[in-house]
Design goal:
By secondary structure, this protein is an alpha+beta fold. It has one domain (4-69): Alpha-Beta Plaits, CATH 3.30.70.20. The protein is 14% helix and 20% strand. The chain has 2 helices and 4 strands. β2 (34-35) and β3 form a beta hairpin. The longest helix is centred in the middle third of the chain and has 5 residues, at 24-28. It is globular, with a radius of gyration of 11 Å. 21% of the residues are buried. Bound molecules: iron/sulfur cluster (2 copies).
Length: 70
């Protein structure tokens, strides 16, 4: 069965343009499946647990996250 997940587009993601380098999209994931190790780092999704709800997509002002179907 196809499943959806969030994928960060590393060409579009610029943490330095986000407030204090903190990923708003990571904060928006209530399941904490989009993780940013430290401010100014590029966030990473958990491909096994992310269900592609899209909350992170809506929170990223640079549109750096897409929902993809695997
Ligand atoms: S995913 Fe979006 S909100 Fe998060 S660090 Fe990248 S550009 Fe900023
Ligand atoms: S799609 Fe939903 S579950 Fe997946 S990382 Fe984004 S906010 Fe979290």
């Amino acid at each position: 069965m196809p499943s959806k997940m969030a994928l960060v587009d590393y060409k579009k993601c610029h943490p330095e343009k986000c407030d204090s380098g903190v990923c708003a999209a990571a904060l928006a994931c209530s399941h904490k499946l989009l993780k940013q190790e430290a401010p100014y780092e590029i966030p990473m999704t958990d491909p096994f647990l992310c269900r592609g709800c899209g909350d992170c997509v809506r929170a990223c002002s640079l549109k750096a996250i897409d929902i993809v179907t695997m």
